[in-house]
Each structure stands twice: as structure tokens, then as C-alpha cells.
TrEMBL record:
The organism's place on the tree of life at top rank: Eukaryota
PANTHER family in the cross-refs: CYTOCHROME P450 26, CYTOCHROME P450 85A1
Species assigned in the record: Platanthera zijinensis
Protein name stated in the entry: Cytochrome P450 85A1
Protein family (similarity comment): Belongs to the cytochrome P450 family.
Gene, per the UniProt record: CYP85A1
Pathway of action: Plant hormone biosynthesis; brassinosteroid biosynthesis; Hormone biosynthesis
Length: 466
């Protein structure tokens, strides 16, 4: 009897403590005119529910709280989640009104203080201008596309009669191709050394900033240190070289009138890391998912092949593709947009308030994060009828990519500067992939869609020549 009473007392005590903690966390963040919402547990907030249930957590909170703007506590910060397309657009367009980037501390620590996503105001303008100078459409046409083409053509050879992990391959292709464009790094020991470190760095940017042995955060920090060392070495060799090269590093180091302003070595390194990081996961995941969707939709694959064989007509086997060929890939572009939409490669972007901000009658306090959650726009049946079907044709001749809620590449002053280059890389990969090979899946594949799109057990396909 005494034992039962003790257990009951303990259980009630524990329940009381939990209620007390939850209540305390609510009261702590309570302010006048805040959006509705729950703050979860002290310190952890609702991070576990968010990471576990992802999109469903968002939809449930919206339904429960009757609104597209609600507060929560995720990834270590008090956060307002915004699912309203109109307000999301407003937030992206108004950095100057106190809505600056708000990426997690782990990401900022690992990507560097001068990383473009961490800087604001005039330094952001300088870095962005430098970046736009490196990856603008004329640069792509004259310098980058030939490099990407040569890389894809040689990298996508000898895949016949093999079982490959297309997730691994697309990661490798995205990274090695960008290394070649950025610093002329050919596939070999330097790119291999960078590969291991970059993979580690990416894992750490979405982790809790706990600097303890064995954590992803600590490993990513160490990876950053090694990447900086390798890049310093590459820069040193380049500075002492008498030969002139035509890559991004050359433009950054020999910045003259073409560049708006010369960057320090530290800024150049952070800019290169940002270029590698920003293009790596987005491009590799979209390429992998395009392969998946095309496999599952033979009629779309047929149409895509038609477009690419038309381009190959009149070309010799080793002849590459040029800007005009790329511009004629209208269906390929549609496949890429549809893949980005349906797979939701980017769920949203993060901002931070630097002053109290009023929105839709609510006040978002200074220092809070805003999660500009754009995922739901991708499945809006008014914008995209039958939103869950893969239908690249919806993008043909409808200017969908210029509608005001098109946010696959962000918007405003942070609109992705690598948009065109990313499309060029995926389109060139698809060109060689579908004209050289046919493929079938081996053993099925599981794909996780949140918080990042990935095939946790790999994605094996059997490849044969076409
Ligand atoms: C399919 C491919 C890609 C997608 C879906 C994508 C998506 C995005 C999105 C949504 C943003 C906005 C982030 C924000 O507002 O905070 C962004 C920014 C950025 N992207 Fe991309 N991206 C892609 C490819 C690339 C590539 C290939 C590069 C580099 C070569 C790149 C470089 C950047 C940079 C540097 C920023 C930061 C811009 C700034 O803060 O001013 N992206 N990207």
C-alpha cells in the first residue's frame, strides 16, 4: 500500500513538474499581441516534434491555432513560423526593415563570419556583387557552361552495366563540378580530400551548436579548418603561378575594375565555402530526385529524351553543348522546376528581427527568428492543380516561374544568385544521362523528405547504355 502511494506521489510530482515547466516556458515568452502558439519545453522547445513530424507538425499547428502565423520554439530559438504566402513575400522583400537572415549559430560558426548568409548591409552588397560577377549569365555562357559540359561529359562515361548509388554519384558530381569551376580543381587528391571534409561540414550546419567530442558540430568545425587550410594552399600556389587561369578564383584574386571592390583573403575563402555549400546539396538533391521522378514517369522521360536527342542531332559523339543548346531545353527546365516543387528541396528560409516588427496585427519581438516556411506554397492547388502529381508540362508556356509566390529560389535581396548555374548543372547532367543510358531501380528506395531530402539507405540503380 505504501509502495503504491509512493509511486502515485512520484507520478503526480513528476506530472506537476512537467506542467510547471511547460507553463513556465509559456509565460517566459508571453508578450502583448504575439501570434498564438506553444513554446514546448525549456531549452528544447518543440524541436523534437518539428524534426519528427516536420510538415505535419506545421499543418497541425496551423489548424489548431487557426492561423498561418504562429509562435513556437525550434532549433534552440523562439521562432515565429509564417506559412502565409503574402507575408512570406513581404519578409523576403524587406531586409532593410529589420528582417535580416537568421540562420542557426551552428551554420554561421561553421560557414565563417564573412559567409554571405551572415553578413548584412554594405558588406553583403559587396560580397553579393562579387558573387554575381562570377556566376552571371554571360559568365555561364562564356566560361562556366563549357567547363560544366566537359566535366559532365567525361564524368558520366563508363557507367554501363553497373549498379551505382545515384545519391552518391549526384553528390560527387555536384561537388567536383563546382570545385572545377571555382578553382580549376580537377578530380584527384585535392578534390578527394575536400570531398570528405565538405560532407562533414554540411552535416554540422544543421546540428545543435554543442562543441563536444563526437558531435557533428565539432566534426564540422574540424572539417572547416581543414578546408580553409586546403584553400589557403590553393590560393598560395595560384598567387605564385605565372600562368593565368579562367576560373572564379582567378577573378577574385586579380580583382580589378571588373570587381566592385577587392575582398580580403579571409572573405574570399568564406565566399568560396559559401559557393561550394550553397550549390552542393541543392543541386545534388534536385538531380537525384529528377532521376527518381523521371524513372516513375516514363512519359516525361520520353519527352525529355526527345528534347535531348534533338540537340544531339548533327553533333558528333564528342561534341559538347553550348548556350543555344541550353536555351532550347525548355522541357528540361520544366522538369527541374517540377522536381524542385514536388520534392521541396528547400522548405523555407530563416530570418531574424532586429527590432519589434508588426505583422498582420501581431507583434514579433526583437531577436526572434522567423521561419519563412514556403513548402506549403508548392502544394497549393490553386497555383498548381493536382499538386501531388509530377507534371512538368504545367511549367510550359505559363510563366509560372514569374508568379509572385514563386519562391523555390528565395526572393528579394537574397534571391539565389546561383539559380541559373544550378539549372545549367542539372540540365547538363540530364543531357548526358538520358542520351547515354537507361536505368532501373534496384531493390526499391526509401526517400526522406524532411528536414532534408535524402535516401538514408542509398539509391541504387542498374545502368545500361541506351
Ligand atoms: C537547384 C539549385 C538551387 C536552389 C534550389 C537554391 C535555393 C536558394 C535559396 C532558396 C536561397 C535563399 C536563401 C535565403 O533567402 O536566405 C539561395 C541563396 C543562395 N544561393 Fe542558391 N540555390 C541553388 C543553387 C545554387 C548554386 C549552384 C549556387 C552557387 C554557385 C548558389 C548560391 C547561393 C548563394 C551564395 C545564396 C545566398 C545569397 C545571399 O545571401 O545573398 N545556389 N539559394
Amino acid at each position: 500500500m505504501v509502495l503504491v502511494e509512493s509511486i502515485l506521489a512520484l507520478a503526480f510530482g513528476f506530472l506537476g513538474l512537467c506542467c510547471g515547466l511547460l507553463r513556465w516556458n509559456e509565460v517566459r515568452y508571453r508578450k502583448k499581441d504575439m501570434p498564438p502558439g506553444t513554446m514546448g519545453w525549456p531549452l528544447f522547445g518543440e524541436t523534437t516534434e518539428f524534426l519528427k513530424h516536420g510538415p505535419n507538425f506545421m499543418k497541425n499547428q496551423r489548424a489548431r491555432l487557426y492561423g498561418s502565423l504562429f509562435k513556437s520554439h525550434i532549433l534552440g530559438c523562439p521562432t515565429v513560423v509564417c506559412m502565409d504566402p503574402e507575408i512570406n513575400r513581404y519578409i523576403l522583400m524587406n531586409e532593410s526593415k529589420g528582417l535580416v537572415p537568421g540562420y542557426p549559430q551552428s551554420m554561421l560558426d561553421i560557414l565563417g563570419e564573412c559567409n554571405i548568409a551572415a553578413v548584412t548591409g554594405s558588406l553583403h552588397k559587396t560580397m553579393r556583387n562579387s558573387m554575381l560577377g562570377l556566376i552571371s549569365p554571360p559568365m555561364i555562357r562564356d566560361h562556366l557552361l563549357p567547363k560544366v559540359d566537359e566535366f559532365m561529359s567525361s564524368h558520366l562515361s563508363n557507367w554501363s552495366d553497373q549498379v551505382i548509388d545515384i545519391q552518391e554519384k549526384t553528390k560527387e558530381v555536384a561537388l567536383y563540378s563546382s570545385l572545377k569551376q571555382i578553382a580549376g580543381i580537377e578530380t584527384g587528391p585535392v578534390s578527394d580530400a575536400l570531398k570528405a571534409e565538405v560532407f562533414q561540414l554540411v552535416l554540422g550546419t544543421l546540428s545543435l551548436p554543442i562543441n563536444l567530442p563526437g558531435t557533428n558540430y565539432r566534426r564540422a568545425f574540424q572539417a572547416r579548418r581543414k578546408i580553409v587550410e586546403i584553400l589557403k594552399d590553393v590560393i598560395e600556389k595560384r598567387m605564385s603561378s605565372l600562368c593565368s587561369q579562367t576560373d572564379m578564383l582567378e577573378l577574385l584574386l586579380k580583382a580589378d575594375d571588373n570587381m566592385k571592390s577587392k575582398l580580403t583573403e579571409e572573405q574570399i575563402i568564406d565566399l568560396i565555402i559559401a559557393l561550394i555549400y550553397s550549390g552542393y546539396e541543392t543541386v545534388s538533391t534536385t538531380t537525384m530526385m529528377a532521376v527518381k521522378f523521371l524513372h516513375d514517369h516514363p512519359e516525361a522521360l520520353l519527352e525529355l529524351r526527345k528534347e535531348h536527342f534533338q540537340i544531339r542531332k548533327g553533333k558528333s559523339a564528342n561534341e559538347g553543348i553550348d548556350w543555344n543548346d541550353y536555351k532550347s531545353m525548355t522541357f528540361t527546365r520544366a522538369v527541374i522546376f517540377e522536381t524542385l516543387r514536388l520534392a521541396t528541396v528547400v522548405n523555407g528560409v530563416l530570418r531574424k528581427t532586429i527590432q519589434d516588427i508588426e505583422m498582420k496585427g501581431f507583434v514579433i519581438p526583437k531577436g526572434w527568428r522567423i521561419y519563412v516556411y514556403t513548402r506549403e506554397i508548392n502544394y497549393d492547388p490553386y497555383l498548381y492543380p493536382e499538386p501531388l502529381s509530377f507534371n512538368p508540362w504545367r511549367w510550359m508556356n505559363r510563366n509560372l516561374d514569374s508568379h509572385q509566390y514563386f519562391m523555390l529560389f528565395g526572393g528579394g535581396s537574397r534571391l539565389c544568385p546561383g539559380k541559373e548555374l544550378g539549372i545549367v548543372e542539372i540540365a547538363t547532367f540530364l543531357h548526358y544521362f538520358v542520351t547515354r543510358y537507361r536505368w532501373e531501380e534496384v531493390g526499391g528506395v526509401t526517400i526522406h523528405k524532411f528536414p532534408r531530402v535524402e535516401a538514408p539507405n542509398g539509391f541504387r540503380i542498374r545502368v545500361q547504355s541506351y
